[in-house]
Specification:
four-stranded antiparallel β-sheet
């Protein structure tokens, strides 16, 4: 089995930031945060590798997750650094202030005179900097804060959901959770009310109010013990007697609730934890990777990243 092995010093703690594809089926990357517990310092590193799990290069900083004109943002000490699909570094000078964020759907958040807007890869301001705060674009929409209230704009800067809410959560299955007068409900992408704002909280696993699948995409259920999450790839996590498993949309328990922790299914796989160790499940509940690892990351359906005893292993499934 082809495998990349990276050993870390025993004083180094590692967190995965994200991963992605630089060049389809040729170059992959993982972003890491390495913390030195002895000196209380941390650095960001990016590892590039190919489908045969051969190491290509290491970069200082982390790579963004969204392409714009064939470039990804390289977040390091130089805010004008980008990387192309062949792993070459490209410099672009922006006339606006940039934070750590990346391009999303061709636009990046910028700051002008303490207000935020959006610019394109050429540095042209596409949406005027008039907002108190902006989230990144997703599905052609961005959550913004304007005059102290939250709303949603399109890529022309027009409000599709007026800025009248105290808080807005990200879109899930074409609806968005909104808070009005300290109560939570749901509206669709055009601002039409799906569920009236009358609940004290939503999607909080420490409480009893959670989100569950319905014809609208989401609705709310109250449970005393069985905590349910959102559907991902046809399955939703369920907590029964303080253990986690998965149900289908008919509320059938399809994966036994016996795990201490589980993550949502992605690419047909779910990371689970049992007795303090992580393993990997498929949608039939079959164990794909034994419960031996401190951390697991699924890059795609072929490649996974494993961490055990301060060693990073990149290998094919």
């Amino acid at each position: 089995m082809n495998q990349i092995s990276i050993k870390l010093d025993k004083n180094i703690d590692m967190d995965f930031l994200n991963f992605g594809v630089l060049k389809e089926r040729e170059i992959f990357y993982i972003n890491l945060k390495l913390s030195d517990s002895q000196y209380e310092q941390f650095v960001f590193k990016t590892i590039l590798f190919n489908l045969e799990n051969k190491f290509i290069k290491e970069l200082d900083g982390s790579i963004g997750s969204s392409f714009c004109d064939g470039l990804l943002r390289l977040n390091n000490t130089d805010k004008n650094s980008f990387i192309d699909k062949n792993a070459n570094i490209v410099k672009i000078n922006f006339p606006y202030g940039l934070d750590h964020r990346n391009f999303h759907e061709g636009l990046i958040a910028v700051m002008v005179d303490k207000k935020m807007g959006f610019a394109n890869i050429s540095g042209k301001l596409i949406i005027d900097a008039k907002f108190d705060w902006v989230n990144d674009f997703s599905q052609g929409l961005a959550i913004v804060k304007f005059n102290g209230k939250f709303g949603v704009i399109d890529k022309k800067g027009n409000f599709v959901i007026q800025a009248k809410f105290e808080a807005i959560k990200n879109f899930k299955e074409n609806v968005v959770a909104v808070c009005l007068n300290d109560k939570w409900g749901f509206v669709d992408k055009k601002g039409k009310i799906i569920i009236k704002a009358k609940y004290d909280f939503i999607d909080d696993k420490d409480d009893e109010m959670v989100m569950f699948g319905s014809k609208h995409g989401l609705y709310l259920l109250l449970f005393k013990e069985n905590i349910l999450g959102c559907f991902h790839e046809g399955l939703a996590l369920a907590r029964i007697n303080k253990k986690y498993g998965f149900i289908d949309k008919n509320e059938n328990l399809v994966i036994e609730a016996k795990y201490d922790e589980v993550e949502d299914f992605d690419k047909g796989l779910a990371i689970a934890k049992l007795d303090g160790k992580s393993g990997l499940l498929d949608k039939n509940g079959r164990v794909i990777v034994d419960f031996l690892y401190e951390k697991i990351l699924v890059v795609n359906k072929d490649i996974i990243i494993l961490v055990k005893n301060n060693e990073i292993l990149i290998q094919k499934i």
